[in-house]
Amino acid sequence: MGSNSINKRVVIFFWDGWLSVSPSMINTILLLHKNGYEVDCIMRHLDYQIADDIDFPEGVNIHRYGSQLKPTDQVNNKNEVFVAIRKNATWHAIKKALGIKSIGYNFKRNREILSEFCNYIRFSKKIISDKKYSFVIGVDTKGLVSAGILFFFKKITLVYFSLEIRFVTDFNFFIDRKIKQLEKYFHKKVNFTIIQDKYRLAILNKENGVSENASNFVIVPNGPMGKFENIQSSYFKDLFQFSDDDVIVLHAGGLSTGIMNDEIAICSTTWPDNFKLVFHFSVYFDEDSNAIERLKKLSNNKAYFSILPVPFDQLATITSSAHVGIAFYSKKRGLNHSVIVGASGKMASYFNCGLPVIVLDLVGFKELFDAYQCGVVIKSPDECGQAITTIMNDYEKYSLNAARCYEEVYEFESHFKKVLDKIDTIKN
Description:
Blueprint: E1 9-14, H1 23-34, E2 38-44, E3 60-65, H2 78-86, H3 91-98, H4 107-128, E4 135-139, H5 140-150, E5 157-161, H6 174-187, E6 192-195, H7 198-208, E7 217-219, H8 235-240, E8 247-253, H9 261-267, E9 275-281, H10 290-298, E10 304-306, H11 315-319, E11 324-327, H12 335-338, H13 345-352, E12 357-360, H14 365-372, E13 375-378, H15 384-393, H16 395-410, H17 412-427
Parallel strand pairs: 1-2, 1-4, 2-3, 4-5, 5-6, 6-7, 8-9, 8-11, 9-10, 11-12, 12-13
Helix pairs in contact: 1-17, 2-4, 4-5, 5-6, 9-10, 13-16
């Protein structure tokens, strides 16, 4: 489609770039397209390989900064970096917000961070320069700051979509901390914020100094969309030659201390032999990598590894082949990782496939699980084996309740309708 062939168009600034493993971003793009918008999504090119993107329909344009850049396209000096943003925002305001006096001890790394960020802004500016947008979405810290800078002087609806909450204390480098300050500034300027649950909303508003009122946010949990489908799949059974008596316990996602892979591998050593722990990864790993070898050792070689990520629209077939899902998050990684009841796309994907889930007793989980009886909340990973037994002893009840929880709490489209309604209200 040409840039002027339709009247409705939206641009999404998604700096972090892990589109293929983000239910919220995939579904946002698809629903905007379904509602007549042409979509530009501008992301970084990742330097590691995750699952492939789904095949988006015509009218969805995915732009990846860094995938086609030549060395001559890079910003190579500080003055050019500043010019890149000066043309799109009040230079005095940007300079004051960044506190540009001295880059400090780690000059080289700070310069790299600033250069990369401003190269992304320059790349984005080329994408949007000849297009007229109905509204703009900035995702997380650098996405919002990019949107704020590029549309500073334009009367346009600006939406902040918070997937990950970044705290000032998370950043070791001066420039990152100053960009975080710009996030706080632009957060106060947006028309409204999209976030996954009420707990994260309170944390984000406190961190950014934003007052909460009923008109400035929409709660949209991170999850799949569409009605529950009872998919019959034998993917893991066939892959690992499991027997009919085996109970397949799935831990899906990446490799991170934040999702407690090590603790899950260790606790599996005490399970009955017919409880089969499967790790399915969203990032490519070699089977003989140090990370995989570590988990093999910690599980006494009882764990199984599904190391080929699949596009998001194929994930349900794989997930449905398990019986129980594990969704652990570590408090040690801070509030972004542990206040996650509405943000756990992994848990929502389990529910979408009728899998009962085992979780740790973190904020919001007990309330949800007490209401829906969709799994078991435990205090420690050591209790995981008993939780699996509890679920399997009344599996039909837990599985039906998991599906009901998905449809009533996590189904994305029913929540995103409120975003579209709010956009229409603002436009009118």
